[in-house]
Specification:
The structure holds two protein chains of two kinds. Chain A is mostly helical. Chain A has helices at about 10-25, 30-50, 50-75, 90-120, 120-130, 135-160, 175-205, 220-245, 265-275, 275-295; strands spanning about 80-85, 90, 250, 255. Chain A folds into two domains: about 5-125 and about 220-295, no CATH class; about 130-205, no CATH class. A two-stranded antiparallel ribbon of chain A has the order 1-2. A two-stranded antiparallel ribbon of chain A has the order 3-4. By secondary structure, chain B is mainly alpha-helical. Chain B folds into two domains: about 1-50; about 55-225, Orthogonal Bundle (Arp2/3 complex 21 kDa subunit ARPC3), CATH 1.10.1760. Chain B contains eight helices and no strands. Chain B is globular, with a radius of gyration of 18 Å. In chain B, about 50% of the residues are buried. Classes of the chains: A mainly alpha, B mainly alpha. At the A-B interface, helix 1, helix 3, helix 4, helix 6 and helix 7 of A face helix 2, helix 3, helix 5 and helix 8 of B.
Chain lengths: ~300, ~230
């Protein structure tokens, strides 16, 4: 898989972006800002996942509808009563608020999807190796062991089936369960003995005698610093405007949504611009790539 | 527990009311952020304690092994929706004590998110799994409660439906519910109950069948190599 342009930046840059995007994603319930969030997260999710991404986004629509319709059932405030359900009023305002809640939820799902693709395990451990060295090392070991243990578990299962102790898809649940327990037991014995060897080998090589240094693939470059400054400046502008109340929106019991006009348009454009940074970098890279290809 | 550790715990516990107070002022669904911060404040002291006692290489590797087994347990058992993680975490807590149980639970939740896809409920998962490992460590500490298969099975079932499951379900309150009030809390907890019961049955079965053999293996490792005997990890 080709890495996208934003993922090539330093993990700290990625983390700042996602913290900003997610915090504002849950804090702002102004419909226009929610639309901006849905648009930006949806586009970036699509760029990262391709066609599979569209399927995943389509799969979120039923969830969106469910949360929207569910909200007025638990929330009966609001002025305009549409009809009553189980003897409780089902109000228009609560329904509209349900749309906002569902939008926030979907935006969070999308941002978390992007986050998982961009901030992979190695980047995360790189970020935290200085603050929490033991935990970071633990994570690295777990990430390495997962594929290793899956392979070993499959070997154990194959070996068991070759001596007639295998479980086919048709086997009863009891057989599957007892066989699974044996596999886990064998896997644990093998892994624990191996772990002692690994641990002693680490100690023999001097683990714990001095401060551990980490292998770093990522180094802060000038471009990283520039992007961090730009992002922080944009976040500062958005926070400043948010404090002035121009992103305020209240749905219950009465709709009260701040209009977007005059200088407040700057706030909206800054917010949208911030969220579209990864998309912008991606498009820029594609254009550059094509220009240099035509140059040949 | 050392005095400095207790002091650290108190500092973090004092931060929680402050977070709640400031979080109240956040607009929109700001309570999601408040929730995540509080979970971080609850968990950070345990991670810092773990860092401070500079765990030995052997201990680290054994913890990593148990986390990995909890994560990939479902590969070994070809039954859909059968979760092996809870039982493995609890058994590790029983064998190695509450502190290690917490670390194994929290790391399992965290690492499995990289493996099975990130979700917004990740902090809640870390807290619930860690709390599960810790609870089992406390209950079975110093063999006060006998480690009989059926006792462990009952404990596994109860701790999933009364402790881990509800802790995990609180994430629905913060994520999907429009606001926090009595009816949204009960709705979240009630909607999670059937899933918790089925996971509880799975865990009880696992504890009954796997409990004794796995504990024997872990105890054997402890005895053979003299690991994790001192509370301070030597």
């Amino acid at each position: 898989m080709r890495e996208d342009a934003f993922s090539k930046f330093h993990p700290a840059v990625n983390l700042i972006f996602f913290i900003g995007a997610m915090c504002f994603g849950v804090l702002l319930q102004h419909p226009v800002y929610l639309l901006a969030g849905m648009f930006a997260s949806g586009v970036y999710y699509f760029l990262l996942n391709g066609r599979k991404g569209i399927k995943a986004i389509a799969g979120m629509i039923p969830l969106f509808i469910f949360i929207t319709l569910f909200n007025p059932i638990v929330n009966t405030r609001g002025i305009t009563v549409l009809f009553s359900l189980f003897g409780r009023p089902y109000t228009l305002e609560a329904l509209i608020y349900g749309v906002a809640v569902a939008a926030i939820f979907v935006v969070m799902l999308l941002w978390f999807g992007c986050y998982g693709k961009v901030l992979t395990g190695d980047k995360f451990t790189c970020l935290f190796s200085n603050i929490m060295p033991s935990i970071a090392l633990l994570l690295v070991m777990v990430f390495r062991m997962i594929p290793n243990f899956v392979r070993k578990a499959k070997q154990i299962i194959a070996a068991r089936s070759s001596v007639g102790k295998g479980t086919e898809a048709s086997a009863s649940i009891k057989d599957k369960l007892t066989s699974g327990m044996s596999v886990i037991g064998v896997l644990t014995s093998w892994a624990l003995e191996g772990s002692i060897v690994t641990g002693d080998s680490m100690r023999a090589r001097g683990y714990g005698t001095a401060k551990r240094t980490s292998f770093m693939v990522y180094r802060m470059t000038k471009a990283d610093w520039v992007l961090i400054v730009i992002m922080l400046a944009m976040l500062g502008v958005v926070i400043g405007f948010a404090a002035s109340g121009c992103m305020y929106a209240e749905f219950l019991p009465e709709r009260n949504i701040a209009p977007i006009e005059g200088v407040n348009i700057i706030a909206f454009i800054t917010y949208l611009g911030f969220l579209l940074i990864p998309t912008f970098l991606h498009i820029k890279e594609v254009i550059q790539w094509n220009i240099s290809r035509y140059g040949i | 527990m050392k005095k400095s550790n207790i002091a650290m715990l108190l500092v973090f516990l004092a931060l929680i009311p402050l977070t709640l107070f400031l979080g109240e002022k956040l607009p929109g669904k700001g309570y999601y952020i408040t929730g995540v911060l509080i979970i971080a404040e609850l968990m950070l002291p345990f991670f810092m304690m773990f860092e401070k006692r500079r765990p030995q290489a052997r201990e680290l590797v054994v913890i990593a092994v148990m986390c990995t087994i909890a994560i990939i347990g479902r590969v070994a058992i070809p039954i859909p929706h059968f979760k092996a993680a809870y039982a493995v975490i609890m058994l590790t807590g029983i064998a190695f004590g509450p502190e290690t149980g917490f670390i194994v639970g929290a790391i399992t939740a965290f690492a499995s998110n990289f493996f099975y896809g990130q979700g917004a409920y990740m902090p809640w998962q870390m807290m619930a799994y860690g709390a599960g490992g810790m609870l089992s460590g406390f209950v079975f500490l110093n063999n006060k409660v006998p480690r009989k298969p059926w006792i462990m099975a009952v404990f596994g079932f109860l701790s999933v439906i009364l402790w881990i499951g509800p802790l995990l379900d609180t994430s629905h309150i913060f994520l999907m519910m429009p606001e926090i009030n009595f009816s949204s809390v009960t709705a979240s907890l009630a909607s999670g109950f059937p899933v918790n019961v089925s996971q509880g049955v799975c865990t009880a079965l696992m504890m009954f069948l796997l409990g004794k053999p796995l504990l024997e293996k872990l105890d054997r490792i402890k005895l053979k190599y003299g690991m994790m005997e001192d509370e301070n990890g030597v």
